[in-house]
Amino acid sequence: MRADNFIYFFTVCGFFLGLIAAIVKFDDPFLMLATSIFTTFVFYVFIHIVIINYIDPNKLGVKNFNKKDFEENTNSLIVELENREGKIERLIKNVDYELAQIKLLNEENKARGQNAKTI
């Protein structure tokens, strides 16, 4: 679990515990607000101290990045995209050709229909 999640969790817990304690103990809204803010701050500082003591900061930023695998994967994806692009271009050409053929046939049929009417 990431350290940020601990910080968020304990900060929210501190706020609600401070709010509950303030509602139980005080009637003045300013004292309630001050108690809630103070308790939230105490929990915030406390969890940072705990994280400092139990999490090694040298291991947090270390990530193994394998450049060779990354380049191989990227190159294979590029080749695959180029292949798909070629297939799509061929399909578009075939569709354009078929549409042109359909238009030609329609024009021929219209011409035949007009010739038949004149006879």
TrEMBL record:
State the name under which the record lists this protein.
Answer: Motility integral membrane protein
Which keywords has UniProt assigned to this entry? Membrane, Transmembrane, Transmembrane helix
- Keyword Transmembrane helix appears in the UniProt entry: yes
Q: Where are the transmembrane segments?
A: 7-24, 30-55
Going by the entry's taxonomy, the superkingdom of the source organism is recorded as: Bacteria
